[in-house]
Design brief:
Helix content is about 40%, strand content about 25%. With about 80 residues, the chain is of the alpha+beta class. Strands 1-2-3 form a three-stranded mixed sheet, covered by helices on one side. Helix 1 runs antiparallel to helix 2. The chain starts with a helix and ends in a 13-residue tail after the last strand. This is BON domain-containing protein.
Length: about 80
C-alpha cells in the first residue's frame, strides 16, 4: 500500500467514524489534497468543531491537516437587517 492509499484509507475510516456518531448530519468534507488533508464544512458549535478536529488529529496523526470549518449560529439575530 502506498502513502496515498494509506492516507485515503485513514480518511475513509475517519469519515465512517463521523458518520456513525453525533456528527452525521454535519456538512463536513474530508479530502486529500496533495499530501495535506483538508477538513471543510459547517458545524453547529465551536465545541463540535473542536471535537471533530480532535478526532481528525487522532485518526490522521502524522498527516498535515488544514481545516476550514465554519461555525453557524442558529440563534435569532439581535437586531433587524438594514436594507438600503
Amino acid at each position: 500500500m502506498n502513502d496515498t492509499s494509506a492516507a485515503e484509507y485513514r480518511i475513509a475510516h475517519l469519515q465512517e467514524h463521523l458518520a456513525s456518531g453525533d456528527y452525521a448530519e454535519m456538512g463536513v468534507r474530508i479530502e486529500l489534497r496533495g499530501n495535506t488533508v483538508l477538513i471543510a464544512g459547517t458545524v453547529s458549535s465551536a465545541a463540535c468543531r473542536d471535537e471533530i478536529l480532535r478526532m481528525a488529529e487522532d485518526e490522521l496523526a502524522g498527516l498535515p491537516l488544514r481545516e476550514d470549518l465554519v461555525v453557524v449560529s442558529a440563534t435569532a439575530p439581535d437586531h433587524p437587517e438594514e436594507l438600503a
